[in-house]
Amino acid sequence: MNKEDFRRFGHELIDWIADYFYRIEELPVLAAIEPGDLKVQLPSTPPQKGEPMEKIVNDIDRLIVPALTHWSHPSFFAYFATSTSAPGIFGELLSAAFDNKAMLWRTSPASTELEEVALNWLRQMMGLDGGMSGIIYDTASVSSMHAIAAAREGIEKRIREEGMSGRADLPLLRVYVSEQSHSSIEKGIITLGLGQRGMRKIPTDDEFRMDTKALSAAIEEDKANGFIPFCVVATVGTTSTSSIDPVSEIVPLCEKHLLWLHVDAAYAGSAAVVPELRYILAGCERADSLVVNPHKWLFTPFDLSVLYCRHMDLLRRAFSLVPEYLRTPEQENVRSGSDYGIQLGRRFRALKLWMVIRYFGHEGLAQRIREHCRLAKLFASWVEESPDWELLAPLPFALVCFRACRKTGGETEVARAKRLDVLNEAIMHGVNATGKALLSHTRLRDKLTLRLSIGNIRTTGKHVREVWELLNEQLERLA
Ligand code: PLP
Question: Which of 145, 182, 233, 297 should be mutated for ligand 1, with most atoms under 8 A from CB?
């Protein structure tokens, strides 16, 4: 593509994106297509000859956009609502243009050093201490897996050299998580060859927080059985309810038994940039590692997950392997990203985070997250004031767990439980089918629970009011 064409199509595409954000509310939030609908419209063989850019962009409008679920729609309230932002998009664009593979310092000094600077800024904004050093991965799933690998390296059982299979000298290794922990932790444990038996789920209290007494008893019991407890994963902002495990109570247990404490703050860690919410990370100053995802609640386009770690030496020991063709004269004096993980080449992700932080500033980021929390509390107040709805979990952040609970006479407990499950699922599908908003669900104490998550940069009070009206319309239709 010559310079003039690049400029022309580039400008047109930026115009296209600007229009997309302008008209996004006219689009259905959830893709209104059936499985396979897109595939049948696309040729099954690649084009033999190159095609004009106009034709490709036309197909994006005609075929791709209708097959998108619009995460950037302001009424996307499902899962953890997230959104991209203008400075983040520009960062992605530049990163694709540079196409650096930041595996060694010399293959991308800018990426390596900007990563340290941006993560140092984020660490300060979150109020984490200077003993925590950061590294960027793609997702929290990968960050947590690396943290557990570093923890395992720390038990000095020569697992890097000898592996875990066929070893009579290696008892069962255990990681402790709450029953509300994210499935990514279990997947990481499976991937590391620790096996699902290597993970012990600890019950939670009335507010879905890890029960530290049960944790203590589990560790003692495992030790008495000759197992090796080596890691606890606490969550600050669990996926179902955003509950906060009592990290300050878990820390002394980890210190007593010499266990690595990893904190999964993938969602809620970003909230610590709001000064009055910093308390959510109480105790984390004594954690060994912590993951936070700017792609979840810091207006940074997917993907960008940060692992803060106090023992980069162990992470390095677990993963560094430098063949001759990667040896460089400066390697002893610089950081090379590939020493700290499974990946060799690494995207220049720090650029978008650096641009996001610079564009919004600490205050701008904090103000947006604070507003999301305010809107969630406002929605929760409507739920609480209505006899037809109830809250099913506390809301420390911007996630509301609730359900319709309209009464009908002469019903057994069992019949009522079943009816409300069916009703709430139908309400959710009813709202989602309008295309005007998107909600998701979970199960809490065996009750189907609706989740409304506010995290989108474009969401305002108007959108929250509209989804409340949609929910009530569905209730009237279905109850
Ligand atoms: N941890 C928590 C608490 C989450 O809520 C999620 C996803 O929602 C994850 C981890 C996994 O995130 P990722 O998609 O970045 O792997």
Answer: 182
Share of the chain above pLDDT 90, in %: 97
Residues 417-427: tens digit of each pLDDT: 999 999 999 99
Show the beta-strand stretches assigned E in 269-364: 289-292, 305-309
55 φ, ψ to 5°?
A: -70, -40
Q: Closest ligand 1 atom to the C-alpha of 235?
A: 3
Cα of 265 to ligand 1 centre, how many Å?
9
Cβ(300) to ligand 1 under 6 A? no
The pair of structure tokens assigned to 102 is 């930041």
One-letter amino acid at 21 equals F
Q: What is the pLDDT of residue 173?
A: 98
pLDDT band at 19 (very low <50, low <70, confident <90, very high): very high
Nearest to 92 by CA among 306, 269, 354: 354
242 alpha carbon to ligand 1 midpoint, in Å? 11
pLDDT at residue 445, rounded to an integer: 95
Note the pTM of the prediction, 2 decimals. Answer: 0.97
Cα(268)–Cα(243) distance, rounded to whole angstroms?
9
Going by CA atoms, what residue is nearest to atom 14 of ligand 1? 139
> Of 56, 24, 15, nearest to 463 (Cα)?
24
143 Cβ below 6 A of ligand 1 = no
For a mutational test of ligand 1's pocket, the pick from 245, 267, 440, i.e. the residue with the most ligand atoms closer than 8 A to its C-beta, is 267
Edge to edge, the sheet with strand 305-309 lists 133-137, 305-309, 289-292, 260-264, 228-235, 173-178, 199-202
Query: Which atom of ligand 1 has the smallest separation from the CA of 239?
Result: 5
Among candidate residues 235, 170, 155, the one with its CA nearest the CA of residue 201? 235
Tens of pLDDT, residue by residue over 109-135, are: 999 999 999 999 999 999 999 999 999
State whether residue 394 is helix, strand or coil: coil
Residue pair 253/246 in contact by the 8 Å Cβ criterion: no
**pLDDT, mean over the chain:** 97
- Evaluate: CB of 140 within 6 angstroms of ligand 1: yes
The SS3 call for residue 33 is coil
Q: E strands within 65-155?
A: 133-137
Tokens 């600077």 belong to which residue?
Answer: 117
| Neighbour tally for 465: CB within 10 Å | 14
Q: What is residue 203's DSSP assignment?
A: P
Here the tokens at position 128 are 């984490």
Q: Which of 184, 191, 235, 289 to mutate to test the pocket of ligand 1 (most atoms within 8 A of CB)?
A: 184
Q: Are strands 173-178 and 228-235 parallel, antiparallel or unpaired?
A: parallel
pLDDT band at 65 (very low <50, low <70, confident <90, very high): very high
